[in-house]
Design goal:
Layout: E1 4-7, E2 10-13, E3 18-24, E4 33-39, E5 46-51, E6 58-60, E7 68-73, E8 78-83, E9 92-99, E10 112-113, E11 117-122
Parallel strand pairs: 2-11
Antiparallel strand pairs: 1-3, 3-8, 4-5, 4-9, 5-6, 7-8, 9-10, 9-11
Length: 123
């Protein structure tokens, strides 16, 4: 069964940093666009960042540009989200997702999802 497993969430102070990881269970994911989403209580899930299969193309939500960086290690079939200068409004459950395409855009139509990891930011 195909799985995406997130790790690295936790508590950070405003202005601090966290790095999220997402490990895939299948080599097929090497060819997929990968994304990080987040959902805060009472809000819709939103795309935070996306990355192409080879890491050559990325896309970011305006709210995280310049603060968050998405990357991937093809050999390890792992995607990362480096989050710097965290703000209280970044607090949410963060989800890793995979999309059966090579396109990188702001679409939220992804095919596989992880269970999510909580990010808490204290002010």
């Amino acid at each position: 069964q195909v799985q995406l497993v997130e790790s690295g969430g936790g508590l950070a102070q405003a202005g601090g940093s966290l790095r999220l990881s997402c490990a895939a269970s299948d080599n097929t994911f090497k060819l997929y666009t990968m994304g990080w989403f987040r959902q805060a209580p009472g809000k819709e899930r939103e795309l935070v960042a996306a990355i192409s299969w080879n890491g050559g193309r990325t896309a970011y939500a305006d709210s995280v540009k310049g603060r968050f960086t998405i990357s991937r290690d093809i050999a390890k079939i792992t995607v990362y989200l480096q989050m710097n200068s965290l703000k209280p409004e970044d607090m949410a459950v963060y989800y890793c997702a995979a999309r059966r395409t090579t396109v990188v855009d702001t679409s939220t139509r992804y095919d596989y999802w992880g269970q999510g990891t909580q990010v808490t930011v204290s002010s």
